Amino acid sequence: MPRKTATARRAEVLDETLTQIRALGMAAVRVADVAEASGVSPALIIYHFGTKENLLSEALVHACAQDLSTVDSIVGGPGSPPARLLAALDWYSPTGPARGWTIWIDAWSVALRDRALARVLADLQRRWIDAIAAVIDEGVAADLFPSVDSAAAASRLTSFLDGLAVRSVVHKARLPRRELHASLIRQLTWELSVSAMVFTEA
Length: 202
Prior knowledge:
Layout: H1 6-24, H2 31-38, H3 42-49, H4 52-75, H5 81-92, H6 99-111, H7 115-141, H8 150-169, H9 177-192, H10 197-200
């Protein structure tokens, strides 16, 4: 059997770290638990990541990179700007098991007292906002949306979904998918000052 590359092993460790975060919560994850589940020594993890805090931060970046790749393929894919904007935000919405949202909400809590993690989260959030803002700008350029501060609009739209995610994951008050989709369209029409038909007919 071929030996795993350092890159492959690193990805496995990060994936296992995310599994441990989901199971135990970010504050309770131990390097020893990740090492045992990954089949490596704790010393090897410390050698590659330095500290537990770096391991957790890189695990978040690893998870977000996968999600950002998906949203980039949506906003850069076929279809009109309104259709791609709605599809990207629909994908971002807290639906189904919401496993990714569990990690994000946990990270927000820990980041209240961890400035380094707070900076990582802020950078990841900025990348989300940039992706959404880019497709809003396309809509403005195509005269489908009025001129708008796209970064501010994207920030408010993602914050709306962040709030719904907290209710969904923490309070178990999950909206049915159809109702959440309708709420998102209402928020878009208000935010961008356009008719709902722009999105329902996209």
